[in-house]
Structures are given as C-alpha cells and as structure tokens.
Amino acid sequence: MWSQYDENIEENVFFKEVSANHGDIIEKSCEENWIITVPREGCFESNENISFEVILDHILIPTEENEYTTLSKKNVSVENKKIIIENCHSFDILFEETFYQQESLKYVVWCIDRPLFVEYTCKVYQKVYLENIHDCIDFLWVESLSHLILDQIRKLSVDFTNQYKDFEVEDLQTQKDLIGRLYSQCLQAAFKNTHLKEKSSKSDQFFENLKISVETYMHYCLGSKLVSAVNTFMCTHDGWFNHITRNAKFLLAKDLGISDDFDDILTLAKCELNKINSYLSILDKINCLQRTFKCFEDGKSKTCITSDEILKFLVFIMLKLNVNNWNSNLVFIKEYRFSSISYNNDFVITSFEAAVEFIKSNNFLDIKNNALMNDSKNDIFDYVRLGMLREVKELLKQEKTLPEQKLCHPLCSCNNCKDITNTKKTNIDVHMVNEKGQNLLTYAAIYNQCELLEYFLHTKCNVNSTDYLNRTALHYAASYGYQDILLLLINFGADINALDCDKNTPLHLACDFGHETCVKALVYSSINVKYDLANFFGDTPLHLATKWSYIDIVRFLVENGGYTNVKNRRNKTPVEVSSNYCTRMLLENAPEILCNNNYEIWENLEIMENNDVANIDSLDFGVKPRTIENFKKIDLLLKAIENNDSPLTRFYLGFNNDTIQETTKKQCHPLCACAVCITDSTTNPTSPKTPNILSVNTCNPFGYTPLHFAAKYGRLEIVRLLLDSSASINVKTYSTLYTPLHLACLNKRTSVVKELLQCGNCKVDEKDSKGNTPLFYASTNCCNKIVEMLLSNGADCNKKNNGGKTIVQDCEERMLYGILNMFHENLKEADEKSTWDIF
Amino acid sequence: MAMTGNNSGVRNFKIVLLGEGCVGKTSLVLRYVDDKFNNNHISTVQAAFLNKKLNIDGKRVNLAIWDTAGQEQFHALGPIYYRSSNGAILVYDITDQDSFQKVKSWVKELRKMLGADICLIIAGNKIDLEKDRNVTLEDAEEYACKVGAIHCQTSAKQNIGVEDMFMSLTTKMLDISDEKENQKSSPLSRQNSQRRNVIVVDDEITPPSKSCCGS
Ligand SMILES: Nc1nc2c(ncn2[C@@H]2O[C@H](COP(=O)(O)OP(=O)(O)O)[C@@H](O)[C@H]2O)c(=O)[nH]1
Ligand SMILES: [Mg+2]
Questions:
Q1: CA dist A692 to A363, A492, A653, A686, Å?
Q2: DSSP string of A23-72?
Q3: Nearest atom, ligand 1, residue B20 CA
Q4: Interatomic CA distance for residues B183 and B204, integer angstroms
Q5: What are the residues facing A90 on neighbouring strands?
Q6: Cβ of B180: how many Cβ atoms within 10 Å?
Q7: What is the Cα–Cα distance from B50 to B144, expressed in whole angstroms?
Q8: DSSP H helices in A462-515
Q9: Shortest CA gap A253–chain B (Å)
Q10: d(CA A439, CA B151)
Q11: Digit-coded pLDDT (tens) for A711-768
Q12: Where are the ANK repeats (chain A) (predicted)?
C-alpha cells in the first residue's frame, strides 16, 4: 500500500520544470517506459536550483526487473517502495501516478521524499504523514513554534468534559454533534496561529495534517471520556458480541480452515491487535489495525497469504483476543472521524467490520457446531457425546460379564498376558476417564447430554470428579451455559464452589461466558454459593461480568450482594474494570450495606460452608427433584398453583383421582370391568401408583415448594390441600430464606396467614436472609389484620433484623402509627400477663 | 488524501471486483497495478486493496481497487465491501458458463442495492483460452447491453484489454461524476464521499450539520 502522502504533481516545481522545458524527455518516457521521479513539493524552492544534471539524475530507465539506470548513467534499484542508490541511501517512493495523454500515450511519475544524488538539507517538515499521537503533538508544536496551540486544545477539551457531564449517556448523533463542535473550536484556535495559517494556505497536505493532528490531540485530551461514551452507547451490542466470542474460545485455527503454517503470523497479528484499547485517538486505533494487517503482508512464512484468507485470519484473532468492545471501536473509528484520516485505510477498516459481521452471523455458529459434532464412534466417550444412552448402558453391562483372566505371574509380560493387561486397561466402567481426565459424567455434561447425565448420576459416578484442569462437571455446565445440566448436578450434591486450576468457581465461568440463566441458577439454587471468591487473577465473578459488559448479569450480581469493592491482582475493583457508563452506574449505586457488611456476610458464608451439602435437603428446605422429568414437572406444578388450577395441582401431586376421572372418560360404574373401562384405566398414566409423582415438598431450583407458591398467590384451597397432605410448613427458599408465612405476609394474603397460623407448628418468628420476620413485612405493608393475627400468635415486635433495627423502630421511622398502637397494646398486654404470672 | 473540500480536485473512485472464485479477479488487479502475472492461484495481501493514481488530461483520479474474497462462506458480507463503490467489475471466465451465471446474479444484487449510480463492467477473462470458450461473445454482449453495463474481453495472462477495461470504467465514472458536479450548486460536494467533513475555508468554519452522516 502506498503511503498517504499526496500532492498535485502538476504544481510541483520540479515537475513543472521538466514538462515546460524538457518535453522531449516526457515524449521519450511515453515510448520507452522511462520513469520520472519527482521530489516532493518543497524540496526545491524555485527552478533556479534545478540544473539539467539534476533532472537527468531523476529519470529512470528500466534495465532488469527492479533495476534502473538514470539518464546520467547511475544505477539504482527498487525494493519495497524504496529507491536504493549505490551508497545504500534509500528514498521513499511516496506514490506513483500514471499520466495519460492523447492517443493513449502514458508515462509514470514517482513522487519521492527527497532529491536523489543531491546533497540535501531538509527544508520541509519532517514527517510527510502522521501515524500516531506523538507525530501529531510534534507537528503542532514544531509547526506552530510554540506549545500554545496544544495548551489551548487541552483547555477546550477539559472545559468540554466539565461542561457536558452527561456526555456519556447522550445518543450517537448528539455525541457526534458535540464533538464536531469542539473540533471546530480547536481548529479555529489553531488557525489563530499565523505560522499554521500561512502554511495551510500554501499546501493542501499541510492543511490535512493540521486537521488530523488537531483532531487526534483533541481525542487524546478527551481521553477515556470519549471512549467510554462510545462504549456506553454500544454496550449491549458489545455484551452480545463478547458472549459469542467468549463461547467460541475453543475454536481452533483449523476449524476456520486456516493451516498451521500461519501460526507465527497469527501470533504477531494478535500482539498488535491486542493493543487497540491502549489507544485513545482514532488515528492511533486505525494505525493499530493497519499494523495488524501489515503482519499478514510481511509474513516471513513461505506460503503467501491470499486476500481470501485475510477475513478468516481476522475472525480468528478477534475470537482469541481479550478485547471487549469491538463494536464500539469500529463505531468510534467510523462515526467520530471529522478530518480525513486516511481514505486508504477504508479497506482495512471495512475488513474488520466484515469480520465482526461474520462473527455475529449464523455462518459462524455452523462452524462452531461442526467443530463440536464429529460423529466418529470409537469408544464409549463417543457414544456419550452423541447421546446414545442404550449403547452406553450396554457397554457398561458388558464390563461386568467379562471373565476374570489370570496372568501367569503378576509381572509377566508374555504375549498372552500382554493381551490381558491391555484389555484390562481399556476395560469399561463408570469410573473410567478420557485423556483429559474427564469421567463419563463430566463428558456427558460437556456435550449437554441430559439423559446420560441423569443415568450416570444414578449410577455411582462421582459427581465431583475433576479432570486435569481441575474442573468438575459443574464447571463445564456453567461455562457452556447448560442450565438443565447445572441444576441436576447441584441437586445431586455437586460442589457449587469447586475451584478449577485457575481458582475459578462455576459462577466465575458462568459470568465469564455470559450465561445469565446459569448465573441465576447458581445463585438461587443453593445457599452455599460464594459470590465473591477471587480466582487466580484476583477477579471475582463481578469483575468478569463487568469486563465483558454483560449488563444483566452485573445487575443481578449487584442486586444479590456481589461485592463491588474487591480488588483484583491488578489492583482494580469491578468499577475500575468497567468500560462503560451503564455497568459503572450499576456498580457505584450498589446497595451500600453490602459494601459495609462484608465481614459479617463472609463469616456467615464460612459457617454455611461447613454444613454438608446434603443438609440442604434437611427439614428447613424443600426436596430437590432428582430427574430431569421431575424438574420440568415441578415447574408445571408451580405454574398450576399460580393459576389456581387445583385439579391440575392434585394431578401432579398424584393424590386425587376423582379429578382425573373427570377429565378422562367416565367408567360405566366404579367397578366395571368391561373392555373399554379396563383399557382406559390401565393406559391411564396418572394412576396413583405411577412412581414419578412429585413429593408434596418438592422444590424448584430456587427452593420454592408448592406451599410457598400457594401462600404467595393466596390460593387458600391449595394451601389447605397441601397442609392436609403434610407439607412442611416452615420450609425456606434458598437464597432469600422465606417461609410460606413470609410470602403470605409479603403479599397480604390474610386468609392464608390465618390458615397457616392455625396449624400448631407454624413458626411465627423465622428470619429471612435480611433478618426480617413475617411480622416485619406485615407491618411495613400496613396489613393491620395480619399484624393482629401474628401478634396474637406470639410474634415478637422487638425482633432485630440484620440492620440492627427492631420492627417497632422501623415502624416509628415510617410513622405507621396505627401499627405502632397495636404493638403498644400488645406489649402492655404482655406486661400485664407477665405481672399476672408473677402472682 | 485530499478528501475534503480543498482545491486539489482529486476524485476518489472506489472499484470492487466481484465474481466467482478463480475467474481471475486478483490476476486482473495485479496485472493492472503491478503489471505482473502469476500462474499459480497465489496473490499477496496487497492485492486485496490497491491504489492507482491516474492523471487523465489534467484530471486527477485516485482509484481504490478492492478485490473481494470469492468464497461462498463470506457471500453475505458482500454489501459491506461494495457499498459506496462507484464502479464494479464483474468478472467471469469465458471457459466457464457457471461463472457467467454468477455475474448475472451479482448484477441483480448490485442494481438492487446500489441502483443506477454504479458503473458496471462485465469482463470475460482468460480469452487466451479461446479454444475452450463456453460463453459466447454475443450472449455476453447482449446481456451487458440489456443491463447497461460495458462488456470487455481480457486476458490477465497475456495482458490483453486490462488497461483498456480500467480506462473505460474510469472514463465512465468521470462522466457521471462531472454530471453530478454540474448539477450541484456547490463545487465542493463529492459524489462519492460518505460523509461531509468539516469544511474549513480559511477562517470560516462550518460545523458538521445534523443531516450529514450517510451511513
Ligand atoms: N489462462 C489464463 N489463466 C488465468 C487468467 N487470469 C487468471 N488466470 C488463472 O486463474 C487462476 C485464478 O486466478 P485468480 O486471479 O486467483 O482468481 P480469483 O479467485 O478470481 O482472484 C490462477 O491460476 C491464474 O493463473 C487468464 O487471463 N488466462
Ligand atoms: Mg482472488
């Protein structure tokens, strides 16, 4: 690619001299393909310095490939857009221009950066084209002969930042308009300088450079403010894009059809491109893209890279890099450019844009699937991967029936015994591991094979077995975003805080790969989960979610008590990792209590951790479903309760078949045994004997039992039904620790509260995760009736919550005088009672 | 790089090459810009994008020539590459009827996406292989005429018709651009510019107006 330098050759002093006085040379050039080299504008101030000898020095006659002699008989060679003369001096060829004349005659002109063979002291500005911020600062400083311009631009930019505090949340057009205005102001300031003004009017190239340097220095002064504004504007796009790239990490070069020969080039290109976010200005960023491209061009590798391959390369390195804002970068480069920073680079930028589009497209997912799905069936692991349950079962059965064969002696290595030991090694059992140390269960999780996983869970397969990366099945389920698998594993006691070799918990991985559903499942489905463990790099899950701009996950973690002030190994808190306004606001506005009470929560977690996982199944909590089918059923059941569909509720719980008979065909008479009636009752899948009935205390992944739901939605009839079938009344949800009574009070279900309290064993003063009792919610909800009932059932209005406040204090703060009156009366009564008791 | 409204009067034209793989797109560009030919299907990255400056009777023209990836896998990305081009060269291989059909589908797509603004060239390449010809000249010319394209016959290998092809495209683009220029009151507007940049004429500075951003 030619450099960006450009000038109108026809106005060049040297060229004018040649064409005015040496028409014969031009004629000859047309005929003989001579090349006229023209030192760029400014090298010669007037034609007085241009002697005939100098002109002869500048006309090149081609001899061999890349070899020329001048008309003055000197030899030169050309290499890499440079002219090299005998004493090894080299001269840049800035551009080539082909001049067409009438009758399709043409000749070629090369514009070069200084005269050949002439003792030459530089008269024009050093750099012909600006590459980065340093060039721009030099340019402004040197050309204006003072640092005044720089100061002014800086001041304008600082004022701008102060004036538009909300700049980041403006829409694209407003941002562009504001920046455009600032740019105009900066340019105007630059034009006040007489040197700059004068030179600009003389040379277009100079004027272009001035604009570029003003703009670039302005970007530099605005600093991260501008970048962050674009990031904010694009943050959902980037989050989505990151989700795709993160989940394609496992793609290999060959999956994209790139051969190994290019490994070195790709590594170089990656190093260049990885710097993109260390630059603040468009010029620098474009330069970074350009340099990345250059890596492909100057690749030392023997095989040439065809242009068709560039796109694949770009896609590949973009997938592998840790750049979290590609969309923003490209929008910034494309939309916020006011000066003409390089038209030449459009192709480079477009290629990156195309790569981004490609990554977003479905094509890309095809490649991903192809990589996952090879259908060779060599061993049991392949059967697992392909989800062939029957074959897997058969293989496992075979193992048991293999006859025991004895070796001649324990260390014997005769052919016979070798065979035996070999088959032993490949013997199949549930504990076998593959070359990565993954057992069958983990492998099933990796390939999202629910059925097989369930099967392995019911055999004696170790649910917490780790592979050579120290990852468990739960790690993989979390990182691939398989929520079903994840829940199933948790219910079978998978260690929810297991650490892999980088000290990542499953929650880290779910956050890193942006699987919101898994993050929620992990947080909700166990009281043991630790939100804030730091991995090897010191990153908490919140760091990772923030880094990749997964806004919803960040919001969720913050709401559920992720710490916002943990520092990672680079000494950065999540806020400092944040690249945009949206996540930053979420983090900065995180509930304060969580930041201040770290310690307490931490200790609680430690204590909880000491409990065995199995304890979750204790009386305090619901029973976890253990099959995928029941998983789905509990959801349906809860839905039915929400809809107040009591027949369906009974149906799922399997304790009433009257209702079933209503929905199915009526029997002729209750004991009829005619053909029709018999087939009906035998095919009836919901007969009470069906083994897969849900227990009345089954809970969903978040610990909600049917009773919770019935209480929450005020389904009195169902509440009665459940209580009658001995549903545990004091069960708690996992993370919030709500009892059904909490939920009834929260949702003002007076009749349900009454029903619950009528059961003798209902605990009225249970605390939820915030330390609040049901009475607290009843009071703050101003449900006098419920408050009254609770008080008369012995609820204590002096209980303190985690914030250290009693309910009475809280009501005083809220000025709920009606409720307070009730408290006072209740306390008085209690006092009287106790005085009575004394007597 | 005088994109902005200064007086150097350079016209920037973007040309894309489209067509099935292996018809010789890259070879044509390399022949035109570097006067080289390679018998193997190998091209350097530079060939993906090449600049050629021309001076035709005092008019300065800057051709940005974009070679595209021919792979079907990337077909959907076409619009990203050809948007805002002034000219397109649709190449087919005269020995390969399929490649000619592909040209037809490109013509449809370009006309649909870019309208009549784009100058089209349909180029039958590899005429050095005349003996194996599978697409008749009459068919191709008739079709080109029908869709308002210029038909050219080329051989990148023997350097036949390559320069002429680029010349006729450039001349046509110049005509269109002259026409546009005359229509517009302002001598500064560029038919192919994607955005209006901040225009500075000495001290007077006009900020970018709201409606300026094309893309
Ligand atoms: N005989 C002949 N072969 C050609 C010509 N142009 C290109 N080729 C060959 O066709 C093959 C494909 O050329 P290439 O330019 O890479 O095609 P692209 O895929 O369209 O870019 C190469 O082997 C070239 O050598 C031509 O004019 N005549
Ligand atoms: Mg090609």
A1: 42, 17, 10, 9
A2: HHHHHHHHHHT-EEEEEPTTS-SSGGG--HHHHHHTEEEE-STTEEEETT
A3: 20
A4: 25
A5: A84
A6: 14
A7: 26
A8: 473-480, 483-491, 506-512
A9: 16
A10: 65
A11: 999 999 899 888 888 888 888 887 778 899 999 998 889 999 998 988 878 888 888 8
A12: 469-501, 537-569, 702-734, 770-802
**Helix-, strand-, coil-residue percentages of chain B, each rounded to 5:** 40, 25, 35
Q: Is B200 in Cβ contact with A340 (below 8 Å)?
A: no
Contact A340 B45 (CB under 8 A): no
Give the CA dihedral A10, A11, A14, A18, nearest 10 degrees.
40
**A183 contacts in B (CB within 8 Å)?**
198
Q: Does B77 touch chain A (CB under 8 A)?
A: yes
Section A805-826 average pLDDT: 86
Q: Is the dihedral of CA A217, A222, A228, A229 positive or negative?
A: negative
- The answer for residues whose C-beta is within 8 angstroms of residue A780's C-beta and 6 or more apart is A810, A811, A814, A816
- ipTM, two decimals: 0.81
The Å distance, Cα A260 to ligand 1 centre, comes to: 26
The beta-carbon neighbor of A204 closest among B8, B21, B167 is B8
Residue B66, token pair as written in the block: 């974009």
CATH of the domain at B40: 3.40.50.300
Burial class (CB in 10 A: 0-12, 13-18, 19+), A65: exposed
pLDDT digit string (tens) for A262-296? 888 888 899 999 999 999 999 999 999 988 988 88
Side chain identity, residue A520: K
Nearest to A579 by CA among A550, A613, A606: A550
Range of the structural domain that residue B99 is part of: 7-184
- Residue A823 and residue A811 in contact, taking contact as beta carbons nearer than 8 Å: yes
User: How confident is the prediction for chain A on average, in pLDDT?
Assistant: 81
CA A470 to chain centre: 23
Burial of A302 (0-12, 13-18, 19+ CB in 10 A): exposed
Question: Between chains, do B44 and A347 touch, taking CB under 8 Å as contact?
Answer: no
Of A250, A229, A231, which is closest to residue A241 (Cα–Cα)? A231
- For residue B160, the number of C-alpha atoms closer than 13 Å in the C-beta half-sphere is 14
Residues in chain B: 215
Its pTM stands at 0.75
Which atom of ligand 1 sits closest to the CA of residue B91?
A: 20
Q: How far is CA A177 from CA A182, A642, B211, in A?
A: 9, 52, 10
pLDDT at A839: 53
Encoded tokens for A424: 């032993």
Tell me the per-residue pLDDT of A29-75, one tens digit each, with 9 for 90 and over. 988 889 999 998 878 878 777 888 889 999 999 988 888 999 988 88
In a domain? residue B126: yes
- Could you tell me if residue B189 is inside a domain? no
Other C-beta atoms closer than 10 Å to the C-beta of A699 total 27
Q: Is residue B22 part of a domain?
A: yes
Tokens of A755: 């029903």
Residue keyed to tokens 């001349």: B171
Give the tens place of pLDDT for each residue, A492-548. 888 999 999 999 999 999 999 999 989 988 888 777 788 778 899 989 999 999 999
Distance from the alpha carbon of residue B120 to the mean position of ligand 1, in angstroms? 21
Tens digits of residue pLDDT in B167-191: 999 999 999 888 887 776 554 444 4
The answer to whether residue B204 sits within a structural domain is: no
Closest chain B C-alpha to A298 CA, distance in angstroms:
9
> Residue A389: which H helix or E strand, with range?
helix A389-401
Ligand 1 pocket, CB under 6 A = B 19, 21-27, 38-41, 43, 70, 125-126, 128-129, 155-157
> What is the position in ligand 1's atom list of the atom closest to the CA of B19?
20
Bridge partners (DSSP) of residue A113 are none
Pocket test for ligand 1, best of B25, B26, B27, B128 (most atoms within 8 A of CB): B27
How many structural domains are present in chain B? 1
User: pLDDT tens digits, residue range A691-725?
Assistant: 467 788 888 877 888 999 999 999 998 998 888 88
